[in-house]
């Protein structure tokens, strides 16, 4: 029986890369059927709501979605629909693996996984202006909400992920030297939980700014990194940079009752509609979804075809210094699937 998946093409380059990924999944024989829904700016324009009830209901029913990027206006306008979806479905773990595929890049043999807490911290959305005198926006305040429950859940997920995937070490990146309560809670619980995994998974903690520097100086010392929401958001783009940029970084948002797979990158308005977006990140997210569903064979076939296409420098998109297009790159992956 094919698995029914909610498909949200999204904004900007979303529809272009989604069409490419759906074509490749079909060519690989993935057992999936799609229920297409809208969200983000596209939905706001079409139905006046950036997160329509029909989209939420579809994810609730299928418990599984593949999502293109959604634009969020900066500073003003509607709140992030990505954040809203993660909170609505309690997708508490954001898993973002990166691995070197482009040879001859800045680093060889990178193989890292970032596990980001996805529902709390500074992205809880608890913020407001403080008026003073005649200035209604004299100050602004955001709350970094950290719960013992949420911290316990994400740290355990990171250690269990390490065990399940044969990873050696978990690094907890934090700022407990300055944020002694919110980040202190994260660090204290990390140290406690690490004791349960002694002999199975090595544990270390590092201050977030030093972690960022060491990721550039010597990324090989890291394996699984776990951190709170905003730090994870920033570090995940940084680790994408180690392996050739956002075009190659997939992500999974995992909860108890649903999972949403997406690329790390956004809607790339600067290249939207030009036909040059790299579909690889969303494709790799779809492969994570196939793994999640136990559809190992099409997952492996796509991995092999994608890696060969990139390694052999066939029709690469401009972000990977090629002169191909989304279409020619997709053709190249599909061709390899046909001959495998
Ligand atoms: N999960 C999500 O849906 C998500 C994530 C990040 C940003 N966003 C939203 O996306 C919009 C644009 O954000 P941004 O410009 O800061 O980040 P972005 O990731 O969209 O783009 C950053 C740079 O990377 C390039 N890029 C991104 N994906 C690419 C791809 N697949 N192929 C080739 N080049 C690619 C872009 O052209 C741009 O130069 C914003 O509205 C933001 O809120 C959404």
Summary of the model, kept short:
Helices cover 41% and strands 20% of the residues. It is built from 11 helices and 12 strands. The strands form 2 sheets. It has a 10-stranded mixed sheet, sandwiched between helices. Strands 6-7 form a two-stranded antiparallel sheet.
Write up what this structure looks like.
- This protein is an alpha/beta fold.
- It folds into 2 domains: 186 residues, Isopropylmalate Dehydrogenase (3-Layer(aba) Sandwich); 132 residues, Isopropylmalate Dehydrogenase (3-Layer(aba) Sandwich).
- 41% of the residues lie in helices and 20% in strands.
- It is globular and about 60 Å long.
- The two termini are 24 Å apart.
- The relative contact order is 0.17.
CATH topology descriptor of the largest domain: Isopropylmalate Dehydrogenase
Low-pLDDT ranges: none
The number of distinct structural domains comes to 2
Tell me which CATH architecture of the largest domain applies here: 3-Layer(aba) Sandwich
How are the strands of the largest sheet arranged? 2-1-3-12-11-4-5-10-8-9
**Bound ligands:** nicotinamide-adenine-dinucleotide
Q: What's the CATH superfamily of the largest domain, by name?
A: Isopropylmalate Dehydrogenase
The computed structural class is alpha/beta
Percentage of residues assigned to helices: 40-55%
Q: What is the number of helical segments per DSSP (H or I, 4+ residues)? A: 11
* Broad shape: globular
The profile of the biggest β sheet is: 10 strands, mixed
Distance between the termini: 24 Å
CATH top level class name of the largest domain: Alpha Beta
Mean pLDDT: 95
Q: Which radius of gyration do the C-alpha atoms yield?
A: 20 Å
Question: What is the number of strand segments?
Answer: 12
